[in-house]
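1st attempt posting a full record on here, be nice pls
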Amino acid sequence: LAQRSGCANPNGKITMPATSSTASKKSGSRRLLAKVSTGASSRWLQSWRVSVLVRAFLALFIAGAEGGSFSAEQASHYEFRANHDPNGIGKFYLGREIAHVMGHEGSDWLERPERVEEEKPDKLIELLGLKPGQAVADIGAGTGYISSRLAKKVSPGGKVYAVDIQQEMLDQLAVKMKASGITNVLPILGAIADPKLPPNSIDLVVMVDVYHEFSEPYDMMQNIVRALKPGGRVAFVEYRAEDPAVPIKRVHKMSEAQVKKEAAAAGLPWEKTIEDLPRQHVIIVRKEK
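the predicted structure (as tokens):
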């Protein structure tokens, strides 16, 4: 891990030990806030906070435009805070801060050799209980690290919809699938609030270390539910927030309780939680028949 080697991690998920420089910056930030607590500086701070909220509202408006609609109801699902974790976007859903998205520039991290031992991806695939002929959606597919494994498990006759919002990721995925001779993976360019999946078509949706980065989780989950067949399942694979030993930044982890809460908000009752992986739990919910 970058934490152990001291190398930079492109996606910013891994926790790093604080340096004197980092501590100095944090201390400086605290001093700045202390200085702007009264008088004209207090008015400046209030203006700054308002500007943050305005930018957040504009981001919501743009997101709504991408998805084809925008409403006050959509905005009401979220809370915006000026003071928040620097690794998050300042937007909260059901008490949880949403994390920054990992850009395609960090795609090498998805394919790191250490991932085999850190996450046991092949064991994950076995735990999902897949069958040949099923339709699976890998949302936040990235370079296809999980999609390629899913594709083999649902063959023959099965299909994997590999969804990502970054075309650059899908381009890398397509190259990888071609080189591996995998023909049952269909790349889909999704939107931040819609995976663009066919309705009532999916047996299982898999989201590996990605759901916590959705900027529009409420609408995304509504569209995921629409894509599921009756009785279809969703597997949230997230780093365990309950375990401080997992070397991942807090906003890039999720607790079992939080996942259950957000799944319930989408009308998906909890089925089971699997704790057989080294750092992640697999939380399974199911659409009612």
